[in-house]
Amino acid sequence: MVLRLNINDARFEDQFKALLSGKREVSEDVDQIVRDILERVRTEGDKAVLDYTARFDRLQAESMAELTVSAAEIDAALAKVPQATLDALQLAHDRIHAHHARQMPKDDRYTDPIGVELGSLWTAVEAVGIYVPGGTASYPSSVLMNAVPAKVAGVERIVMVVPSPDGVLNPLVLAAARIAGVTEIYRIGGAQAVAALAYGTQTIAPVAKIVGPGNAFVAAAKRRVFGTVGIDMIAGPSEVLILADSGNNADWLAADLLAQAEHDTAAQSILITDSEDLASQVEAAVEAQLKTLPREDVARASWQDYGAIILVDDLEAAMPLANRIAPEHLELAVADPEALLKKVRNAGAVFLGHYTPEAIGDYVGGSNHVLPTARSARFSSGLSVLEFVKRTSILKCNADNLRQLGPAAIALGESEGLSAHARSVSIRLNL
Amino acid sequence: MVLRLNINDARFEDQFKALLSGKREVSEDVDQIVRDILERVRTEGDKAVLDYTARFDRLQAESMAELTVSAAEIDAALAKVPQATLDALQLAHDRIHAHHARQMPKDDRYTDPIGVELGSLWTAVEAVGIYVPGGTASYPSSVLMNAVPAKVAGVERIVMVVPSPDGVLNPLVLAAARIAGVTEIYRIGGAQAVAALAYGTQTIAPVAKIVGPGNAFVAAAKRRVFGTVGIDMIAGPSEVLILADSGNNADWLAADLLAQAEHDTAAQSILITDSEDLASQVEAAVEAQLKTLPREDVARASWQDYGAIILVDDLEAAMPLANRIAPEHLELAVADPEALLKKVRNAGAVFLGHYTPEAIGDYVGGSNHVLPTARSARFSSGLSVLEFVKRTSILKCNADNLRQLGPAAIALGESEGLSAHARSVSIRLNL
To answer: Which residues bind Zn(2+) (chains A, B) (predicted)?
Structure first.
C-alpha cells in the first residue's frame, strides 16, 4: 500500500506538510575525512591523488600519466559500443546542443538617455571540471548533459574525472565524452578528484568551476572548494510529480512513476489525480509492473517509502499543491496541459500531455536532465549554458555625465561615511 | 612603501602568484555556534529570535510585533533624511531599475524541426530575504542594489532584516527600503535572522532565497541554510585593479585606490601601469591624501598590507595579468579603453576611461555593486535579475514525435540499465 491522501480530509494539510518536509536522504558525516583529503591533495598534488586512488579505487598507478585517458583508449572504447547506441548518443548530443544554443545570452551595450554608456558582456568560464560517478551510476547521458552546455558556452578546457574502481571504466562514458568534446579525461574520483580540479596538481591544471553529481564525499568536497571554484547545485534523489485526469492509461502512468523509483531507494514518485478510479488502477499497475522490473528492489523501496497518491476534486485548483512540492519533474498528463502550465510556478521541468514521458527528457528531448531537486525549484533552475558563462558590467562616463551624476554619488558616499568614495568623484569635478 | 612588482623581474611570476594566492580574510570559526542558533530558531521560532536579539543586539522585546518595523516608523525615518539625500537615493533607484529591467530574461517557446515543442519559461522567486548589516556597514545603497533586482524580477515578498544594536537603526536604510519597495522589515540580525528567513517562525513566513552581505555569523548561517533556501555569493573584502597609462592625473587614481581601501583593512587596491613616473606620483598622492581621510587608519592598513603597484612594458600585453587577478572592479584609465576591454575575460565590472571612478558604479551608475570578489569573477557574476528568477524547461511530444525519438531513448535507457525508463517509452509505442 502506497501513501494515499485526500485533499478533503480534515488532516490533509498536516499530512501534506509532513510529505513536503520528509527527509529522504541520510546525510553521511564525511566532512572531516574530506577536509583531510582536500588538504593533502592541495599540498602534495599528484602524489596524494595516486595514493588515494590506490586506496579507494584499488587502482595502482605509478604516475598520473597512467591515470590519464588517452585518445587511443577512447578509440578502443568506441569500437566496443554498438552502432545503434552510438547513434542514439549522437542524436541526444545534437538535440541537447540545439536546445542549449538558444540559451546563450547576448551582450548588451547601450547608451542611456543622459549619455552614459552601460553594458553587460558575457564570457565563457575558461576551464570546467565535470565529475562523472563510477560504477553503476556512470551514465553517458549525464556526460552529455554536463559537457554540452559548457561546449556551447565556449569553455576551452572541459576536464572530465571518472573513477574506475578496480580499473573498470564504462566505454559509453568515454564515447559520450568524445561526442561532447571533452578535452581531458582522468580516471580518478572521490574528494581527491574534486581537490585536483579545484587546486590543480603537477599534472592537472586547475579549473574555475566543477559540475556533476557524486556521492557524499564528492558533495562534501564540492561544498568545501566552493569559493575557490564555482560549483553547480548539490543534487538530491530524483523526483516526479504526475498530475493526471481520468483520461489516462494507468499502465503508462505506472511506468512513469517506476522510471523515477528505479533510480534510487530515496527517489520519490507522486501522483495527483481527480479520479479515484485512476488512482486505484495506477496503484495496481505499479504493483504488476514492479514484478517484472530488473531493479524491482530499488523501485519497490522507493515507491513504498516515499511514493504517494493524492486525490483532489479539481486539478487546476490543486496546482498550489504542485507549486508547494516544487518537483524536479512535473508531468501534466491531462487533456489540456497548457491550461495547467499557466499555473506552474515552481518546477524544474514540465512534460506536457500523454506522449511525453519524463524519460524522453532524460535522454533525447534536448532540454537538460540536471534539474533542481528537494523543492529547490522554488529558487533555482536546471543546468544551462548560463552556468558556464559569467557577466561583466560595463560603465563609461564622460566629463558631462560625471557632472550630472557626480553630486548624487557624493551625497550618498558622504551619507555612508565613505569620504574617499566621495572624493574620487569630487576631485574630477574640481569640487 | 607599498609592494611594487616589475614584470621584467626574474622573480615576477613567483611574486605575482604570491599576490594572487594571498589570503586577506581571517576566517572565524563560528560554525558550531551558528549551528546551535539555527537549530533553536528552527524548533522554537519567535521565542528563540527574541532571546538572541536581546542577547546579541541588547534589544529587549516582548514580542515580534515590537521587532517589526511599521509604516509609521518608516515615515518618521524619511522625515529625518535631508531632501538632497532622498533625491540622490531616488536617482540611484531609478537608474538601477532602468539598467536591471534590461536583464529580465525572455520566455522561449518553440517547435523544433521534427515537431517537438520545447521551451524555457522564467518565473520570479516568490519570496526573498534581504540581509542588511547593522552599525557602520548599514549602507542604504546596498539595500537598493539587493532589493531593486528582486522587484524588477517580480518577487512578491521582499523581506528585509536589519539588526538594530541597542535599538539604533539607520533612517537612510529605511528610506532606501521604502523607495525600493521592500514589503516587510524586521529589526533582527545575525544567524538568528537568517534562520527566521529560511525556516520561518510564527511571525515571519519563510522565504525561498536569502541575499545580502553580513559578518562571519551571517556568512556561516547562509552556507548552512543553502539547500533549504537559495543564497547569493559569500562576499569577501572589496578590490579594485586600475590599469593606467601615462596620461593620467595621479591624484585621481590615488583617490580611486583609496576609495577601495577605506572599505576595510582587508580591501585590496592594485595599480598596473606602464609608466614608472606615474607609479611614483600615484604612490606619493596616496600618501598625501591618506593624511586627510577620516577613515585614514582603515585605508592605510589596507594599502600597506594588500596594496600593490605593478610595472609593465605594455598594458595590452599585461591583460593576462588582469584576467588572472579577476578583479571585482577593473578601471581602464587609458586613452583607448575599448581596445583593452576586448581583452577582458575575468572581471566583475569594468569602468572605462578617466571619468568613470568606481564610486559611480557603487551608487548611481545603474549597474549592480554586488560583484564577485576573491578571484570568483573567473566563474561568477554580479548580482542581477537572474538571481531572482528561475527557469522551467518545457517538453511536449505528440505520438509521432515519440515514435521518432522513442527508439533512441529506449536504447540509452537500456544501456544505462534503467529498464523502467525504457519501458515508460516502449509501453506508449506498443513495443
So the answer is: 260, 263, 362, 421
